[in-house]
Automatic annotation (TrEMBL):
Domain DUF5604: 1-48
Gene Ontology annotations for the cellular component aspect, listed alphabetically: nucleus
Domain Histone methyltransferase Tudor: start-end pairs: 148-195
Protein known as: Tudor domain-containing protein
Native source organism of the sequence: Poecilia formosa
Amino acid sequence: MVVLARRRVTRWQRGKIVEIINKDDGRVKYKVIFDEKGKSLVSGHHIAKETTPKLDQLYVGARVLIQSPEDEQCFLPGLLSELPSRKNRLRFLVFLDDHTPVYVSLPSLYLVCRQMDDPLGDLPESPHKCFMAQYLRSWPYPHLTHYKEGQILKIELNGVHQKCHVELVDCSLMKVVFEENGETDWIHRGSLRLEHMSKFLELKQNRGSKADDSDSK
């Protein structure tokens, strides 16, 4: 059976299941031989069928894959973050594990076979994991900032907030151009990379901590 299986943390590839192994503790493992040489032993959490999922199988928080735009042999894991609606022009929003947001159509999605009880269980401890936890808690009303094309703002790039301007707004995303080097980037309008949003969440957390302290007295 041909599947997409995890080869590295952020890199999945096409391969074939050659053996199903039933462990003594009840777990099931799948031995996968990859098309580009190599093999791996993975669980159902780390394989996906190379078929288009049905709409009723998809939900916000589902673990999915999309094909890498830079390498057709590579598939990138992420979390489904919006379902199609008129507001997003009937597209799916996926947050990749490196915090990159991207709108895709149904044929571009591959659903991980066995979903984890905790949708964040496969994410390493990082600002992105904190962001996704907040995002899923606030869904279907995630925090979104409002910017207009041409507006100046600051966004984190390489660990530093840098000045840029909004070139294009596309539903929950916006394309920005950094003034220093002309580099462009797509960013979610609620991303922690936004200086405004990071300050807002920091203030919210501080208020929550003060409230907890007062309750404990």
